[in-house]
Amino acid sequence: MIVIHHLxxxxxxxxxxxxxxxxxxxxxxxxxxxxxxxxxxxLLALHPTATAPVIQDGDKTLTESAVIVEYLCHRYGGxxxxxxxxxxxxTDYLYWMHFNNNIMGLFFAKRALGGRTEGDSAxxxxxxxxxxxxxxxxxxxxxxxxxxxAGPEFTCADVMxxxxxxxxxxxxxxxxxxxxxxxxxxxxxxxxPAYRKAMEIAGPGxxxxx
Length: 210
Hints:
alpha+beta, Glutathione S-transferase Yfyf (Class Pi), Chain A, domain 2, four-stranded mixed β-sheet, 9 helices, 10% strand, Thioredoxin-like_sf
């Protein structure tokens, strides 16, 4: 059985969501953040990269969300929620699969600058904000013409990108109030039974069992 090592209030809740979408059994192991908000040593010890999410499948230990979702869908889901290279929307799938990483890079770069207004810091802050804003508006344009990011069907690209629009604003990320198509998209995701169950189990407001 797949073991999902879940760090509370983190992107690892997307792996729980995917497993619920696939209807596959899994074991969820909670790891609590330390008082400084960092991951605990027992989670970091699972893999040399010391990152979450982490899954264990027998003798395999995997990290990196994009790797995990593709692995699970192809190995246990018969390719569901993926797009193959011979499909016309394959490039869209690739782009939106990695959209979240782009946004997270911008998010942490902005936090490192801390809104500084002097010299090169001010220039970089302006450039980062502009790139972030363009990325979000591009997503809104995409969702004006497609119910899901990779096309008409729900895919792993949605599993990967949703955090950007749903949870990241809770931690100081860009809000989506000015993006009507993104807001409608979030409502569609919230209506999915698997998403609702995953958020109850492992979402930002979830409490560990016991």
